[in-house]
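Saturday, quiet lab. Running sequence design on the structure tokens for the scaffold JK sent over.
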């Protein structure tokens, strides 16, 4: 038992902390065939259990709804097995569904949309095969896709399982550029339509926008990021594609609108490190091996406060696993890692009396808990508890500091708070464990947070030390 009234837990600066909206991501990036669940999870099992926090499924819309109303989450056993495999390994989910067929091995929009009368054109698929894509200002397309998003939201606007949704899906690869319009004057109305399609249906799950769309940075920020409170999705990290101007703007958006990052995928652009070295005017001088490309990307992610980053697909993961120190670097510093630095009591605890508890916190990661996002609605708050000797939970002996905002705790800063609480008159004297936590106060199925401390845990509670009540 600690005779002092100040408690300083040992910090955990390295290793996996699985918390919402933070950490490494595994992908089923189905530009060719979708992954077969058994083979996928056999190959990804170690990475999923030891390194990752999120499973991201990026599919053609046609795979998710091959026939009208026949949704993959209801009828596709492989889709169900992919999702269940992620959940069984403790991963949370993320999604993007895209509609343009460019560079794909199959048509990205379900053919029932074309047969219903949607107009479109042919685009160059994989191996130069022509594939149909709809005009996104076509009313039939918009009606059918809106219905799909509504059904998708009914199933997956579920923060208990889902971390975020890429809420755009237009343009090549769903990244918001090369928008397929019949009338170019319809660009901004289409942007408003797609934002409303997602934002009016997803009320509890984070939405993201692929920043730097064809609609322009200012429109992305005004309409999507600030207007609809989307997180910033940006690919191209670790490359010249992430321009100086974009870098400045991403830093300006932080911390209110965190970055969910993605590295430049040189594996699609070129299979040659030598070509990447030649092409990349920012980092090419550092590229000698694939490790160099991945290391530079992680450095970029850390420099721009990324909450999430991509281990990505099976071949990428196999490569990353040959230099685990690069994986550990983002795992230990990427995203957010909240920890109490010290907790102190104004005076010894006595039944029926009040006392003041002071607590100071830090964030050991470069990212930010997106607690200010309107879809999370400040749900996370620091809390303290007394667990009686021999018990595993505190029962009613819980006190929440609802004035302390962990969404304000930024990397390597210290944030001091205090509040008064009362002990019940009927509390039996004796030894108790004083504990702290960051709790999900909305009780919507999202987990309470894992703190970056080496302390013992009882559920969400991290034990600070034993204290005496009374006596």
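Result came back. Writing it out in full:
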């Amino acid at each position: 038992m600690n005779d002092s009234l100040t408690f300083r837990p040992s910090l955990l600066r390295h290793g996996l902390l699985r918390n919402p909206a933070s950490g490494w991501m595994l992908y089923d990036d189905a530009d060719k065939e979708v992954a077969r669940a058994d083979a996928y999870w056999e190959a990804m099992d170690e990475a999923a259990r030891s390194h990752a926090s999120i499973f991201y499924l990026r599919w053609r819309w046609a795979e998710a709804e091959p026939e009208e109303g026949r949704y993959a989450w209801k009828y596709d056993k492989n889709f169900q097995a992919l999702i269940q495999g992620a959940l069984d390994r403790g991963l949370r989910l993320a999604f993007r569904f895209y509609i343009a067929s460019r560079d794909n091995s199959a048509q990205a929009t379900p053919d029932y949309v074309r047969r219903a009368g949607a107009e479109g054109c042919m685009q160059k698929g994989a191996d130069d095969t022509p594939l149909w894509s709809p005009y996104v200002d076509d009313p039939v397309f918009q009606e059918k896709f809106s219905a799909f998003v509504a059904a998708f939201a009914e199933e997956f606007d579920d923060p208990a399982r889902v971390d975020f949704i890429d809420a755009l899906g237009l343009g090549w690869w769903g990244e918001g550029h090369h928008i397929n319009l019949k009338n170019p004057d319809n660009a901004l109305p289409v942007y408003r339509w797609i934002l409303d399609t997602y934002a009016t249906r997803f009320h509890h799950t984070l939405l993201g926008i692929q920043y730097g769309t064809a609609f322009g940075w200012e429109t992305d920020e005004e309409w999507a990021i600030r207007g609809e409170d989307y997180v910033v999705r940006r690919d191209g990290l670790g490359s010249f594609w992430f321009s100086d101007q974009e870098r400045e703007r991403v830093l300006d958006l932080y911390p209110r609108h965190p970055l969910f990052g993605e590295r430049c995928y040189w594996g699609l652009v070129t299979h040659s490190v030598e070509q990447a070295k030649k092409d990349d005017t920012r980092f090419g001088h550092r590229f000698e091996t694939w490790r160099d490309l991945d290391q530079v990307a992680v450095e970029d992610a850390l420099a721009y406060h990324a909450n999430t980053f991509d281990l990505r697909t099976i071949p990428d993961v196999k490569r990353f696993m040959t230099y685990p120190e690069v994986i550990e670097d983002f795992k230990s510093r990427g995203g957010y890692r909240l920890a109490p630095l010290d907790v102190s009591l104004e005076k010894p605890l006595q039944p029926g009396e009040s006392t003041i508890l002071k607590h100071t916190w830090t964030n050991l990661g470069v990212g930010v808990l997106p607690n200010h996002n309107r879809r999370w609605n400040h749900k996370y708050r620091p809390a303290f508890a007394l667990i009686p000797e021999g018990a595993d939970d505190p029962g009613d002996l819980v006190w929440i500091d609802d004035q302390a905002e962990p969404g304000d705790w930024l990397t390597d800063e210290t944030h001091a708070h205090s509040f008064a609480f009362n002990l019940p008159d009927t509390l039996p004297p004796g030894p108790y464990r004083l504990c702290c936590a960051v709790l999900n106060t909305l009780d919507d199925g999202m987990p309470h947070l894992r703190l970056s401390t080496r302390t013992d845990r009882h559920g969400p509670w991290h034990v600070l030390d034993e204290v005496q009540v009374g006596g």
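Notes for JK: The chain has two domains: 6-13+337-469, 23-333. The CA atoms of residues 238 and 296 lie 5 Å apart. Ask whether to fix the surface positions before the next round.
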